[in-house]
Design brief:
The protein folds into two domains: 3-92, Winged helix-like DNA-binding domain superfamily/Winged helix DNA-binding domain (Arc Repressor Mutant, subunit A, Orthogonal Bundle), CATH 1.10.10.10; 100-183. It is elongated and about 70 Å long. It has a two-stranded antiparallel sheet. It has 189 residues and is mainly alpha-helical. Helix 1 crosses helix 5 (77-92) and helix 7 runs antiparallel to helix 8. It has helices spanning 3-15, 20-29, 32-35, 43-52, 77-92, 100-106, 116-141, 147-183, and strands spanning 56-62, 70-75. It comes from Xylanimonas allomyrinae. This is PadR family transcriptional regulator. Pfam families: PadR. Residues 11-85 form the Transcription regulator PadR N-terminal domain.
């Protein structure tokens, strides 16, 4: 699932034809990097790919002042169909992506066991800082948010809170984890 594809196609339906700089400004204005996996820099590449796939079409070229000419793109009928499919798929797929840290924590390196508690402490501090910053940012932008955007951002708050709780449990269990790993015999050897 590509969130950037959803954003580009949906933005053209909602706002009409745009050139890349306008799309980037819209992404900045909507703070999509705060609540999606979209990076503003990825938009130009996505526009080129979507056009190459026939989901977008250049409708005109504009030039302002001494700036280079800009190609204004619009969504095609094929693009509208793709948007409908992407949107439906995004709503239909339920699940969590595996987090590589789970494997690293479940299979700690024997020569790094003494560092486990400090690693967990550092991770917990970073997660708490992210939660604090996110909560402050949410409060600062709250007046500009739609109901759906507000709820989407609280989803991030909930996920960060869950990560804090998980890391607190791991940190509390660190001595038992280290003791278990030092005495564990691998049944596969």
């Amino acid at each position: 699932m590509s969130t950037v594809r959803l954003f580009v196609l949906d933005s053209l339906v909602r706002h009409g034809p745009m050139h890349g700089h306008q799309m980037r400004a819209l992404a900045d204005q909507e703070h999509v990097d705060d609540w999606t996996d979209i990076t503003v820099g990825s938009l130009y590449g996505a526009l080129k790919r979507l056009e190459a796939e026939g989901l977008l079409v250049a409708v005109r070229t504009e030039r302002e002042g001494n700036y280079p000419p800009r190609r204004v793109l619009d969504i095609t009928e094929t693009g509208r169909a793709a948007l409908a499919e992407l949107h439906a798929a995004a709503l239909a797929v339920v699940g969590l992506r595996p987090d590589p840290v789970d494997y690293a924590l479940a299979r700690p390196q024997l020569d790094q066991l003494d560092d486990l508690e400090s690693v967990l402490t550092d991770r917990l501090a970073e997660l708490r800082a992210q939660l604090t910053a996110h909560t402050a940012h949410l409060a600062a932008v709250d007046q500009y948010l739609t109901v759906a955007e507000r709820l989407t951002l609280t989803h991030t708050t909930d996920r960060l809170t869950a990560e804090v709780v998980f890391h607190e449990r791991m940190l509390a269990a660190a001595p038992a984890i280290v003791a278990d790993e030092r005495t564990r015999k691998d049944p596969h050897v």
